[in-house]
Specification:
With about 400 residues, the protein is α/β, with parallel strands linked by helices. The protein is built from 14 helices and 13 strands. The protein has two domains: about 15-190 and about 370-395, Rossmann fold (3-Layer(aba) Sandwich); about 205-365, 3-Layer(aba) Sandwich (Rossmann fold), CATH 3.40.50. About 40% of the residues lie in helices and about 15% in strands. The strands form two sheets. It has a seven-stranded parallel β-sheet with strand order 3-2-1-4-5-6-7, sandwiched between helices. Strand 1, helix 1 (about 30-45) and strand 2 form a beta-alpha-beta unit. The longest helix is centred in the C-terminal third of the chain and has 18 residues, at about 345-365. Keywords: Glycosyltransferase, Transferase. InterPro entries: Glyco_trans_1, Glyco_trans_4-like_N. This is Glycosyltransferase. It comes from Arthrobacter pullicola.
């Protein structure tokens, strides 16, 4: 360093704590968001490590496969039938607490599961600023076991994070009911990096449903809408891509009795690259889900410039409507069938939706913009919470 020259500022040290990371689609959208954020933060110059749980033997993490550090910890079901919230790992929360002491901030993707709840509770005594993001998963409940959990644990846990990152106004209302003060909330967005692929309108029309085959996503309603559209003369194919989470049998039965079985394809779960390829070659991406707070698949499709048909119950609907970047439909078969017929008959409308979806992604769902926003939020959390551990770290750097 030359005489009189200011030293280079060191990178912000960030530990991100996710829940279940795999295998396969068991991880869900929360882990996808955590990975995206970690990669974007690393690209922006932060020193990032991401930790998550793995059912079974964790896979080796190959050097150079990620711009940030990733570490997996084995988790197990404490009893047969235990679902995501009940998966247990003692090593992951302990690691988060121990290594959080050397971080400038710990970002916990907190979803009322054992892993992230235990990590947050252990981080309480470290003094490190904790930023929590619940992805709409931490909501008040009338279920007796959840109410007991909230009375014993959640009411103490919500005092720990210095900052809460929220996606929607509804999420903020839910957190307030659980005891989080509005002054500790800051709104963020989800994002995806700019993809290499771009959408192109296929010659043979294809409508794509790419999501979990779960009741909330309404794959059966997608099939019913497709059957109505086919009966009305729409010449198109329909693809359902995603892992079964309880709806596959109903979907198959509807297709078998439709008289149009040759028009449908069930691919099962696809990898990220295959999902992108399917999106890039469809006439429109259709998501008829109910009460969907912030679907990453819609953002991924917008990044490619895919024409969108999205439920009015999607949390992204206001942004999409304002930008004219999607056809908004009631989540019913009749409404979706009409939307697909109209869009299928109007190439100009498809091209317009594509261009506006790309512009919307660049304006608010860009990974670069999100990284800078997160860094500013982390600095805010660091300045607003100075516990004993934080003071010890500062004294140690003098």
């Amino acid at each position: 360093m030359a005489d009189g020259q200011a030293p280079e500022p060191r990178p912000l040290r960030v530990l991100q704590v996710g829940g279940l990371a795999g295998p396969g689609a068991a991880a869900g959208g929360v882990w996808a968001v955590a990975r995206m954020q970690s990669a974007a933060l690393a690209a922006a110059g932060a020193a990032v490590e991401l930790v998550g749980g793995w059912l079974g033997a964790p896979p080796p993490v190959k050097a150079g496969t990620s711009p940030h550090g990733v570490r997996y910890f084995r988790v197990h079901r404490p009893f047969p039938g235990a679902k995501l919230r009940g998966l247990v790992s003692l090593a992951l929360p302990r690691y988060a607490a121990a290594h959080g002491r050397t971080a400038d901030v710990v970002h916990v993707h907190l979803c009322r599961d054992f892993i992230t709840t235990a990590a947050t509770l252990l981080l309480r005594r470290t003094g490190v600023p904790v930023v929590a993001q619940t992805h709409g998963m931490l909501v008040p409940s009338v279920a007796a076991p959840v109410r007991v959990f909230d009375r014993i644990i959640t009411r103490h846990m919500v005092r720990i994070p210095a900052l809460w990152l929220t996606l929607t106004a509804q999420e903020e209302q839910d957190l307030q009911q659980l005891g989080v003060r509005p002054s500790r909330m800051r709104r963020v967005v989800n994002a995806v990096p700019d993809p290499v692929l771009r959408w192109s309108d296929p010659e043979q029309q294809v409508f794509l449903f790419a999501a979990r085959l779960a009741a909330r996503k309404q794959p059966a309603v997608f099939v019913q809408a497709a059957i109505e559209a086919l009966d009305a003369g729409l010449d198109a194919r329909f693809i359902l891509a995603g892992p079964d989470q309880g709806e596959a049998e109903k979907v198959r039965a509807l297709i078998a009795g439709s008289g149009h079985a040759e028009r449908f394809e069930l691919t099962g779960e696809l990898g990220p690259k295959d999902v992108q390829a399917a999106m890039g070659q469809c006439t429109a991406f259709v998501l008829p889900s109910l009460n969907e707070p912030y679907p990453m698949a819609v953002i991924e499709a917008a990044a490619l410039g895919v024409p969108l048909i999205v439920s009015t119950e999607c949390g992204l609907a206001p942004d999409l409507e304002q930008a004219g970047a999607a056809v908004l439909s009631e989540p019913t078969a009749a409404a979706l069938a009409e939307a697909m017929r109209k869009l299928g008959a109007d190439a100009q409308a498809r091209n317009g939706l594509s261009a506006r979806a790309l512009n919307l992604h660049r304006a608010i769902w860009s990974a670069d913009i999100l990284a800078q926003d997160l860094l500013s939020r982390y600095r805010l959390a660091s300045s607003s919470k100075q516990g004993p551990g934080a003071r010890r770290r500062k004294e140690g750097t003098r």
